Each structure stands twice: as structure tokens, then as C-alpha cells.
Amino acid sequence: MNRKDIALGLSLAFMVLAISIVISIEGIGPIIPIDIRGLGASYLWNSYNPWNTTLTSFSLNAVTAIIWDYRGLDTFYETAVLFASIVAILMVLRGYIEVKGLGVKGLSDITKTATKIILPLIVTYGFATAVHGQITPGGGFQGGAIAVVASTLIIAVLSIEYIYELGISSSKLMLLRVFGFLGIIATSISLAIIGMLIGVDTYIFQNMAKENSLSMPINFLDTTLAGSIFIFNLFEFIIVFSGLTFALIMLTIREEELRNIDTVVEVYE
Amino acid sequence: MSEEYIISLAFRTAMISFVFNIAVALYGIFSRPSLIKKLLCLIIFTDSINIFAIFIGFRYIPGLYPSPPILSDIPTTVKDIQTFVTVSVDPLPQALVLTAIVIGLASSMFLISLILMYYRHYGTTDIHVSEEVEKYEEDIE
After folding, report:
1. Residue A269: what pLDDT?
2. Distance from CA of A41 to the nearest CA of B (A)
3. How many domains does chain A have?
């Protein structure tokens, strides 16, 4: 127990005490307010409101409406951060080569069969969560994170060789990821380009018609599509599923696949 | 004691426990030598702050239960939307926390790969041991 640890403990205890006093006298505002804040109330009013067509997004789920419509640029940059982190992993582990047939067997046959039965159910559930993001709790990121459980199970139970046998390689996943990212960019600027061509004022990340007449599809049969929110959720599902599976494959590397990582570093230097 | 006072007390206790959680996680980040433990504490720290932010968006409605911010009536009438605004919780903290979760996931994935390379280089995840190894290597040179 040196002097540094004592100072650290005392300062953390002081921090807890100070913030607790502030919370207990409601210094950061009422703890559980009866009335909602004005900004939140306006989002609730407008997320699905057919009588206010310039501000609504026709999404029953207010959280998804905020994520992909009202604060769409935020979420675009968030997706870009996820993309950049995958590129950074690729940079740290450069020189990595996929080697097939290393003789990794996985767990017992009973576990393997049970897992193979569950796998399509998990992917279907994740996809349903993603495409119903505008009507039920869920969205692209949540659906993608559910579907990634399938690839995690494959790696843990059936071994990584099975992923290679399915025809999934890290380069294909990277391509899928770039495709999803380009899809989000294309969706966000598509209405702006169409408006430019036919001579109507439109915005980037426009979902519903503002002072102009251009709008994304509102309904499909009798289900609300919420315009671009559905398309964004679909592409986000692709991005999250391929990106996280890619990261999982990169982080479960074997010694044999990392053999020439040092030589590659020397070549670049 | 009124029902409102008891609920308010319970919520304050929960929020203070999150602050305590944040303090323990900060102790782990500053004081533990192992990088894996530092990463785990960082994840606990992020999640505590996220739950804290969601708590700020919660609300108390006398005689009613607060509902998630999802409208469930199609076709919708004006009265449905009015009821929705009266009973629903604030959706903005939830949306911001979702963004924070994704960015936290991205940064922790990158940190895991860095720790993996660190382990391959030094054979340990302890930061003090690696300092000794570096000094030893410098002495040899």
C-alpha cells in the first residue's frame, strides 16, 4: 500500500461523496420527473404524426426515428467509427493469412448438431429485428448484434474451419461491409440527386417531404416502412453482421496464420 | 410516507450505486497492472454511465406505468398520440446511449486487438513486467 494508492482511494471516495450529495439534493435536475422534457416530448409528438407531414418520419418507434431521421448524420458518423475500428484491427494484425485444414475439430457431435439446428433461427430472428425496427423495439444495430451470435457459436462450437467451409472469408466480409457503407451513403444522397435532376429543392438525409414533394416510400401494403429508416436498418444490419464477424475471425487467429506477420512489417518499413 | 417519496428514494439509491460503480471501475483502470483487467473496468465504466443516462430519461406518472417510446396503435388517432406523449418515457437518452454503445464496442474491439499483439510481443499483459523487459533489452544493446 503505497502513497499513490491511498491518494487514489481517497479521491475516488471524495468523488462518490460529492456526486451523491448533488444527486440527493436533486442538483442535476429532478430524479424522476412527472413531465417529460420539451425536446423529448416534441420527438414523441412528431415521430408518427400523419397530421404534421413536414416534421414526421412515419416511424412508430420513436428511438429509431431519432437515430436514422432526426439525428441521421450522428448515426452515419457512428457507423463510420465502427468501420474505422475494423480498418484499425486490420492494420494492427497486418500480414495475417487464412490457413485452412489445420485439423481443429470443435466440440462433440451432440453439441454440433444442436448448434446447427439453432443457427438459422438466430439469423432469422436477427434479420426480423432489423427489418421491423420502425414498428417494434429493434433496429439495424440490434438485429446485427443478434445475428452475430450465430457466427460466435460457429467459431466456439464448430471451430473456425466451418466458417471457411461455408465460403465466408475475411476479404468477402470486408467487401460486404464496404457495400453496406456505400448503400447508406447512396440512400442518404439519393433524394438530393433526384431533386437536383428534376429541379426541386431537397436535402441530404431527407426522409419525408418537406416544402417539396419528394419523399421516400411511406407504406408497403398495410405496413409502415418509415421511408429511408427501413433501408438504413437493412444496410446497418449488413454492416454490423459482416463487421463483427470479421472482427471475430481476426481475433481468433491461430499461430500458423500469424507466421509472416514480422516479415510483412519489415517489408513496409 | 407517500408512494412518490419511496420511489424517488429508490431511484436516488440506484443512481448513487451507479456512481459507486463508476468509482470502482476508475480504481481498476488506474491501479490494476493487467491490461485485460483495465479493459474490463473500462467496459464496466462505460456501461454504468450508459445506465445512468437512461435513468435520466425515465419518468414517474402517478397511477400509471411508464411505457417504452413505441406507438402501438394503427390506424392512429390524435387521441392515441396524446396518450402516447403522456405515458411514454423520453426517447432521446435511449437513442444517444445506443450511439454510445456502438462507439464503445468499436473502441473496445480495437483495444482487444492491441492487447492481443502486446501479449504476443511480451508474453504477458502486465504493464510493469513489460517495462522491465524493455530496460533489459536496452541494457543488452
Report:
1. 46
2. 6
3. 1
